[in-house]
Write a structure and sequence with these properties.
By secondary structure, the protein is α+β, with helices and mostly antiparallel strands. The protein is built from ten helices and nine strands. Strands 6, 7, 8 and 9 form a four-stranded antiparallel sheet that branches. A three-stranded antiparallel sheet has the order 3-2-5, covered by helices on one side. Helix 3 crosses helix 5, helix 6 crosses helix 8 and helix 6 runs parallel beside helix 9. It is elongated.
Length: about 500
């Protein structure tokens, strides 16, 4: 930590300490008086805080709360009627918040007891002056007025001291001669006497009132009964007159009612006829209007139905055209799909037949080459042994004859199934040999119309088989077609025999 930082920290700490020492605060019931250099006038703080310069300014406290001052006369004081009395009162005062400067000049640095003692002297003097202007009876009867006079009398003097009088209450008023007690006893006797007289007068008045009330009640009862009888008589007479008048009025009313009823009936009949005629005319006009509106509605409905039928026909035509076009498009699309499928199928079938023909030609070719190679080897062997085998020719011929006999016998034992099996076994080799020349062909294109491509290819199969039979016959000397034909006849004969 460098020196400047330490200096700053020390300065801040000192400043905080100075603020703690210099800052003073007070409560709402106390005033702080800050005086000293450089102020010319003191500063007053109430319920707040402030700064003061330690060593240069002084802080004094002044109590602003309520003070109770006991005001008593030290010696009896004569009243206006020269009766010595002792008065005990209590005044509630405080330092006027609006005149703190004056109060501070008079009471600064003094305790509450000292302030109360100084105020007490002034208030006692004012109270003694007021007592001298009042008589004894007034002092006892109007104590509130007495206390108000004390406050009014002492207020200017208290204002000069910076004090405000809050209230003043008279506690007691006494005299050394017992006159207040005597006045009370005399007043008590008077009150008792007045009460007795008032009671007797009240009892007398009650008796008189009761008698008068009884008499008045009896007179009132007799008068009431007489009045009731008179009233009953008058009532009967009046009821008879009223009945007579009522009967007369009833007869007149009945006659008038009958006349009025007949008039009303005639008027009602006239009104009814007129109303029926007007109603009939109105109904006729309304029916005409209804008929006109009905015709117009029917015409409008017919127009709307015609428009609706035309719209339905147009919609049906559009639906029919759409359906025909849809069917035509579907048929066209189906034909295109069928044609494409048929073309694809023909291509695949042609490729299959071509591959099969190639395989058969290859087999036939291989078999022919094998037979030719065998014959060449056999001829070479015969030529090699030459005459060495001449002696064996006879034996060989005999062996071949025997073998031929065996083969003939074996062939005789073969039936149509065995021959067919032999034919099936050698046909792939024959077909391969026949199709061998076709292996040199890369592409085959078939042209024709009306499905003639497939029929032409399938028609070439018997031709190829017939040519294959001829090749076998030329190469080996065996006529496979005759063998098949003869065996077929044998099989047919055997089938007939079995049946």
């Amino acid at each position: 930590m460098d020196e400047s930082t330490i200096i700053i920290i020390v300065a801040v700490v000192l400043l905080l300490l100075l603020l703690l020492v210099a800052y003073v605060k007070t409560s709402p019931n106390q005033a702080l008086v800050i005086s000293g250099w450089p102020r010319k006038r003191p500063k007053f703080l109430v319920g707040t805080g402030g700064l003061r310069l330690p060593g240069l300014q002084k802080v004094d406290r002044l109590y602003l709360g309520q003070l109770s001052v006991d005001i008593k006369t030290d010696s009896p004081v004569p009243t206006s009627d020269f009766i010595n009395v002792d008065v005990d009162a209590v005044a509630k005062v405080r330092i006027d918040p609006n005149n703190i400067a004056t109060a501070a000049a008079n009471f600064l640095g003094k305790s509450r007891e000292q302030i109360a003692a100084e105020i007490r002297d002034s208030l006692q003097g004012n109270m003694r002056e007021i007592i001298g202007t009042q008589d004894l009876r007034s002092l006892n009867v109007d104590r509130d007025g007495f206390s108000n006079q004390i406050q009014e009398k002492a207020a200017p003097d208290m204002a000069k001291l910076g004090i405000e009088i809050l209230s003043c209450n008279i506690q007691s008023i006494t005299d050394g001669e017992g006159l207040i007690h005597a006045l009370g006893a005399d007043n008590t006797c008077k009150i008792t006497k007045d009460a007795s007289i008032n009671k007797a007068n009240a009892e007398r008045d009650v008796a008189i009132a009761r008698a008068e009330a009884s008499k008045q009640a009896n007179d009132a009862r007799v008068a009431a009964e007489t009045e009731i009888a008179i009233k009953n008589t008058e009532l009967a007479i009046k009821q008879a007159d009223l009945k007579k008048q009522a009967d007369t009025q009833t007869a007149i009313a009945d006659a008038a009612y009958e006349i009025q009823r007949q008039e009303q009936a005639r008027e009602i009949n006239i009104k009814t006829v007129e109303a029926e005629a007007a109603k009939s005319i109105k109904q006729q006009e309304r029916q005409k209007e209804i008929n006109r509106l009905t015709v117009e509605a029917e015409v409008e409905r017919a127009k709307q139905e015609q428009l609706l039928r035309e719209q339905e026909i147009a919609i049906q035509q559009k639906l029919l055209e759409a359906q025909v076009n849809k069917q035509a498009d579907a048929a066209k699309y189906q034909k295109e799909v069928d044609a494409a499928a048929e073309l694809e199928q023909r291509k695949r079938q042609a490729e299959a037949e071509r591959y099969e023909a190639e395989q058969k030609a290859a087999a036939v070719k291989a078999q022919a080459e094998a037979a030719l190679f065998a014959k060449q080897q056999e001829a070479a062997g015969i030529k090699a042994v030459g005459e060495a085998e001449a002696a064996a020719i006879k034996a060989k011929g005999e062996a071949e004859a025997i073998a031929m006999d065996k083969k003939a016998e074996a062939y005789k034992k073969y039936n149509g199934a065995a021959i067919a099996e032999m034919m099936v076994k050698i046909l792939p080799d024959v077909a391969a040999k026949v199709a061998e020349p076709l292996t040199t062909i890369n592409d085959v294109h078939v042209y024709g119309t009306s499905g003639s491509e497939a029929s032409g290819i399938s028609g070439n199969v018997p031709v190829v088989m017939r040519q294959t039979m001829e090749v076998i016959k030329e190469a080996t000397g065996v006529d496979m077609a005759k063998i098949m034909e003869s065996n077929t006849q044998i099989i047919a004969g055997e089938a007939k025999i079995k049946k």
